[in-house]
Amino acid sequence: GQSMALRRADFTALGVAGLWERSLSEDMSLSRRIRFWPKAVRFVGRALPPAIDGMDGQDLVAVFNRWIALFRVYRPEVWALGAATTAVKLFLLARAFAPRFDPVLLALYAASESLAMALCFAGFAACLPKGGVPRAAAWRAVAAAPALPLLFAVNFLSTVVVRTVAWGRYVYRVRGPQDVSAHPAGQAP
User: Residues 38-50: what's their mean pLDDT?
Assistant: First the structure.
């Protein structure tokens, strides 16, 4: 994975080569395997490489679709909680506009979403190398946070039934967490 380090003996004992051979996500498939493993697992956030890439709206939707699809495949209980949370947020947002416009409810909704995003970035700042997240990018994310549930609704709906996931030059046919086949993009899986 992009930020994993394993001892060779653990790699072999866990059967990681075989696990990764038929999975869609190295880290999510491995996390399922080590959930009850007796050895300690450490997260070292400061070892993560910063990656601030430009993307357009289509890229943004595709990235979120992939990650939400990964949770649908590997952690369906987390996916269901995220879908339910998104539904509640959309309900609150809709209530701010109907049956009559309620500016107080809209302000509370927007403030809570922005505050949650600001707290996430504060947590990230504690884990990442100094300067890992540009301040302007963090503030843009905080300002955009109230609109995220609209994007998430599209993502969750697109992953209700995960059959294929497009990633790079490949389309992955997903039959289950460990039953994934890769096909070049443009060829039907």
Answer: 76
